[in-house]
Structures are given as C-alpha cells and as structure tokens.
Amino acid sequence: MQELWPIEPAAYTPHPLHRTELVWPQSNCYVDLWIELLHTFGVEPLAAMPFTFAVDLEGDQWTFFKFPLADLDALYGIQVFELNVWDSLPGHVEQQLSLGRPCLVEVDAFHMPDTAGTSYHAEHVKTSIGIQAIDVDGGRLGYFHNAGYYELDRRDFNGVFRLDDGVRALESLAPYVEVAKLRVRPALGGRALVNASLNLLGATLTNLPRENPFRRYAASFADDLERLCRSPLERFHRYAFATFRQAGAAFELGGAYLRWLQAHGEPGLEPIAAACDVIATTTKALQFKTARAVGIGRPFDASTLVGTMAAAWDETMTALTARYGVVMEQR
Q: What pTM did the predictor assign?
C-alpha cells in the first residue's frame, strides 16, 4: 500500500467539526474532505473558513463553496494543481502519493461504500474524494470523503477507476483530478496563523454580495416551491442540496470560524457567531417545512423564515465589516 499516513479507518478520529452535533453535519464533498485532509496533515482547517461568508444566491442555487486554493497556500504552504490524466489514473495516483501528494479525484458515488444507504450501488452521483493510500495490485484504496476516512477493495476499486471498461476508460472523458503539494513552505501557526486568517477575512468582506442574498431568495422561493410541489420528491432532494444545505452549512462553518477566532485572541465575536447559527438553524427549518409541503403538494408562506435569515445576514455582515472590513497587514 502506497500511503501518506498509516490510517486505520475504524480508528480514525475526524476533526471536531465532524464530531460535534452540527445542524449541518456535512456541507459538500469538497469542503468536507479538505477539512479531514488538513486535520490529518496536522493543521487547523478552521483558519481557512473566511470564504464561507461570501456565499451568494447564484440564480437557481446557492454558491457551491470551496476552499480557495490561494488561501491553502497562504496559510498552510499547500499548492494545488490539476493533474493531466494522460495515462492510467491508478498509476498517476500511485506516482503522486510516492511524492507525498494526496490526490483529489471526482468519482461516481455508486462505487463508494461509505455511501451505503444512499448512493452506493443504487445511484450514479458525482462526488470528490481525497486519496491518500493506494494498492494498485491489491485493488485497495484509502480515501477521505464527507466526514471521515474509508477504504474500499477490488470490486469498488475497479468501478471507481473504470477498469472494467477496459480500453474505453482511456478513450472516454477523464475525471477531474487535483494534486495537493504539501509542505511547499512551513504552515503558519500561533498568532501568525490568526493574523493571516484575519487578512483573508478582510479580503472576503470586500467581496460580499452587493445586496442581501436572502432578500433576493425571498423573491424567488415562492416560485421554486410551486414547482417543487408539482415535481417528484427526487427533485426536492437535489434542490435542497443546492440551496438549503449550501447556505446553511456555509454560515454554520462561518460561526465555528468566529468562535475559533475568539478562542485565539479575538474577543466579543460570540454574538456574531450566534447570528450565523440563526441562518444555519433557519435554513434547516425551511428545508423540513419544504419537504412536508412537497409531500402533500401544498405550498406555504416562507416569508417569516426567509426574513429571519435576511436579518441575521445583515447583522453578521454589518458587525464583521465594522470590525474587519479593512485587510490588516499588521496586528
């Protein structure tokens, strides 16, 4: 097994973000796997969370938020580049791991045993995993996915890498693969990490949505709900992931980030973190009410719930901008 860390899946301890009772225990596959990869690398992923405050309503969905690669470089000395898949993907992965570099690969969740009960051998869904161990001859793979670390064996190994397709796997469109070059420079720590993180927060606050995205959502949600109530339940599940989960999880992570700052010398942030919690809990409440409405085919008035989120967004951004709205090179 070519591996970066000797991890036993059954003994793996996730980052506290994935061990606590969160409203949104998972955000999206890319953010969640990076949380665990950074945690295993020995750095604090919370320091890189300022980007969560910039999520916006992007027409028919909320921002599918991701760690900005430049932020990973600035805080942790990690550089990420796209892998050119010109040959056998397992061979590429093995080569990169031998250089000490985990690989982030877009795969079909149909072959991911950790999704048993949802996608595993039931539904073809694109997802991203962070590979840190591979045994090409033995058909074993160790990977970060969602909130944990897992292994799979030959049957699913062949499916993940499309080996059963033979030559067609090389002739078809290759998956998107990123490689993380660790230790390009030493990761920041202590107050230097906090200061660098605050600089990222200041930069994020200069790129907020120009108008409150929850107020714009209030204008479109009624139409969304009417369509959902006339559609199969599966459409609701896809909609919920693209909207409620992205908005709610982003602000829950934002609140956790503010509490991390407060624990590292930035006092008085709990009221702002609490406003982020309001957004997280209210989006979950809206998701539940929407699911019930779709189940009975009867829309409801969501103006109060969306108005609560809009007010919490104003409170959060007003307070953060007043305090950190200028990028701070020195503190």
A: 0.94
